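Lecture 7 notes: from sequence to structure.
We start with the chain below.
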Amino acid sequence: MSIKSSDRNFARRIDLTSLQLFVAVCELGSIGKAAEREFIAASAVSKRLSDLEATLSTPLLYRHARGVDLTPAGESLLHHARSVLFSLERMQGELSEYANGVRGHVRIHASISAIVQFLPEDLGAFIRQHAEVKIDLEEHLSTEVTRAVQEGAADLGVCNTAHGTGDLQTRPYRNDKLVLIVPRGHDLAAQSAIYFEAALEYDQVGLPSNSSIYLAMRQAAAAVGRTLKLRIHVTGLDAMCRMIHNGLGVGVMPQRAFDLMHGVGELEAVELLDDWAARQIELVARDFSTLPLTARLLVDHLTTPAAP
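Predicted structure tokens for the same chain:
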């Protein structure tokens, strides 16, 4: 897609130094303080801001004796200026890594289920084959993972996509199975398999309210006209196990995650027969075909069936 001439001219008229000074003034609320921090004369800062307002044909700041306040247009510019400057810093960091011998950099955001169950082994195997690649991995809720990919904060997402992905592309990664975790000796511990409805009689230890597992639990309860008896929200699977072990309720987590945390409390896993308990974890990208080569290599590695 070609860039319009007007768009190119606009980009050329915007001065990065002026954007940096504008952000500094906004953060400090004063032209004088910004000038002091940036080691530049206050008159020079004021001139650059005036030029910036002239370029954009709109006032950006309300100037008064105590300092400055942002106009609505200034608020909008501050948001975009921070995004532009952050992208430049990230670009500088990534390019400096190439100069230092790191020939690839992949940013991944993934759900706790993917990180606990699968990614350590899979990423470890990839790094052993491609030691020159740097991988930045961050843990987020599934809804936040897809948003980060959509906004460009991550190259690749790994999460459950039952909540939807908009116009993002997906590829299957792994399957997992949710189970009900109960204390040893609990009324449900003797059952080999149950429907989640049977667990609604008991207090629940839940993951964050916008996590994919908690949303599935709440929807399942609503489908039978019930509500969850939520005792506490926790942020991690190990914390969930400890709470359940100490009698605060029952909880739902992936079977493999529970198996890997064997020994965190005297607990039992009971199979859930509900359809929503069988899940698919997927890779998410804006466009897999346009990912950098290193990211495409990683996608190929993650989607290659693992050896038995």
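Points to note: The radius of gyration is 25 Å. The CA atoms of residues 166 and 273 lie 29 Å apart.
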